[in-house]
Amino acid sequence: MSLREECEDLRKSFLNTGSWYKMGSRQSSIMASSHHVMRDASVSVLFCVLIVALGPIQFGFTCGYSSPTQESIISDLKLSLSEFSLFGSLSNVGAITSGQMAEYTGRKGALMIAAIPNILGWLAISFADDSSFLFMGRFLEGFGVGIISYVVPVYIAEISPQNMRGTLGSVNQLSITIGIMLAYLLGLFVNWRVLAVLGIFPCTILIPGLFFIPESPRWLAKMGMTEEFETSLQVLRGFDTDISLEVHEIKRSVASTGKSVTIQFADLKMKRYWFPLMVGIGLLVLQQLSGANGVLFYSSTIFANAGISSSNTATVGLGAIQVIMTGITTWLVDKSGRRLLLIISASIMSVSLLLVSIAFYLEGVTSEDSCLYGILGILSVAGLVAMVIGYSLGLGPIPWLIMSEILPVNIKGLAGSIATLTNWMTSWIITMTANLLLTWSSGGTFLIYTAVAAFTVAFAAIWVPETKGRTLEEIQFSFR
Q1: I need a surface site. Which of 89, 206, 255, 466 has the fewest CB within 10 A?
Q2: pTM of the model
Q3: Greatest CA separation found in the chain?
Q4: Cα separation of 107 and 136, whole Å?
Q5: Where are the transmembrane segments (predicted)?
Q6: For residues 143 and 343, what is the distance between their CA atoms, to the nearest angstrom?
Q7: Could you tell me which of 9, 216, 199 has the C-alpha nearest to residue 110?
Q8: What is the pLDDT along the chain (480 residues), one digit of tens a residue?
Q9: At what angle do helices 311-336 and 371-390 cross, to 10 degrees?
Q10: What distances in angstroms separate CA 217 from CA 40, 142, 161, 475, one per listed residue?
Q11: Handedness of CA 402, 405, 409, 413 (dihedral sign)
Q12: Cα(361)–Cα(275) distance, rounded to whole angstroms?
């Protein structure tokens, strides 16, 4: 058997995960009569979204893990603050292959691959006796969640009807916030080793769940798998739904490129490619430079610096607020649109981060016995809460949603890897330096974040296109 045939067999092995939906149209009609629930398109798509949402929950748990465990890990393993900052930042290393892997193995295959290093990483952390195993575990987690961070929003965007794509796409960020809150909450009751073991569960449920959902129809169409593409789309839209128009639009979209066309870096200079890539990268980088991950990774330390005695409990409250506000965004995004929410979100963050910066600066020059010192502590906490509310309203969920919508299908592998790698490299810089910057100057750190949030308002107003109510194919044709 040739190498090319072996590669095709490998790709098919990832595609053929589960067979309940692999049937002809006549068999589909027979099954539909006995399984009425599958006739409702929203039920079918929602089920798929809930399965893949286990990936972002794993992602969020990884992000939240470092906050409640910082003191105990440093104490038990005798780490320095710099070493723990390195540990926290190592979860940002896995994005380099995410787009290409999703193109080669399919969206489901990439998620299956991503689940394995996540499980191994948590086990390595739970049994770590020194920094080497701790770092190796975090590195493995980073590889897994780097893939998840790209693949899940792309899969959701590619399976969702246009009128539900914003709401379902926002489930990705909602799941991340749930994962963060779970890490914060469970961290109150269990030690860091047990918490690492609990981190295994989302991916152990995700792997069997992937056997019961269809592959992305748009990926199947791009790969030339016409029969599988139409079957997958029929399952997602309901057995009684006429999908002929959507099939035609998707086929027309991929016809000019075809399965065999390889996009090179030089091709990205065309406006229909560089503009959506610029918007996608810009939003993902600004999302990280706003400092949100620095706050979420080390929120317990920040609250302690603000004078809050029960900093871990306050962190759980912050996580709960983030879940609630992201849930509201999930409801709003298909009503108000992506661009408006981004502008509102970044505006709220600019004001709240400036408040936090001023409060921390004044705390540094105020006596701890002063009444003003306590008031400034309350103001800094209120500013952090407002920042998280603003972040959850737009800058948290929407960049990944827009990135999954605007990248043309034939460059998603290359461009998606570039965008995700840039995002995670920026995240690595933020999470690596956040603890050190906060030690240097809490007020100065938040002033930097304020400037980024203010620039994001202008970027969203000038460059970001509105994608609400448009099919992925319509969005792609608008860039030509």
Answers
A1: 255
A2: 0.80
A3: 79
A4: 26
A5: 41-59, 109-127, 133-156, 168-186, 192-213, 273-296, 316-333, 340-362, 374-402, 414-440, 446-464
A6: 32
A7: 216
A8: 554 555 455 445 444 444 344 433 333 443 344 344 444 455 589 999 999 999 999 999 998 898 888 889 999 999 888 888 888 777 766 556 666 778 888 899 999 999 999 999 999 999 999 888 999 999 898 889 888 988 999 999 999 998 889 899 999 989 999 999 999 899 989 999 999 999 999 999 999 999 999 999 989 998 888 889 999 998 898 888 888 999 988 888 777 655 444 556 666 677 778 888 899 899 999 998 988 877 776 777 777 766 676 777 778 888 899 899 999 999 898 888 899 999 999 999 999 999 989 988 888 778 777 778 778 878 888 888 899 999 999 998 899 899 888 887 777 777 777 887 888 788 888 877 877 787 788 788 889 999 999 999 999 999 999 988 888 878 877 776
A9: 40
A10: 18, 28, 12, 17
A11: positive
A12: 40
- Separation in Å, CA 153 to CA 97, 176, 183: 16, 12, 22
Report the candidate in 175, 464, 181 with the shortest Cα–Cα distance to residue 320: 181
Contacts of residue 324, defined as CB under 8 A and 6 or more positions apart, other chains included, come to none
Q: Taking each helix axis from N to C terminus, what angle separates 98-126 and 3-15, rounded to the nearest 10 degrees?
A: 70
Q: Could you give the CA distance from residue 169 to residue 405 in angstroms, rounded to a whole number? A: 10
Q: Degrees (nearest 5) of the Cα angle 230, 235, 237?
A: 90
Tokens of 124: 């390595």
Under 8 Å between Cβ of 141 and 126: no
CB 398 within 8 A of CB 166: no
d(CA 175, CA 58): 9
Helices (H), 212-270: 217-222, 226-237, 244-255
For residue 39, the 8-state DSSP code is G
Residue with tokens 């840039």: 422
Q: Is 130 left (phi over 0), alpha (psi -120 to 50) or beta?
A: beta
CA distance 113 to 117: 8
Q: How far apart are CA 68 and CA 316, in angstroms?
A: 9
* Position 290, amino acid: S
User: Would you mind telling me the total number of residues written for the chain in this entry?
Assistant: 480
Place of tokens 């309203």: 393
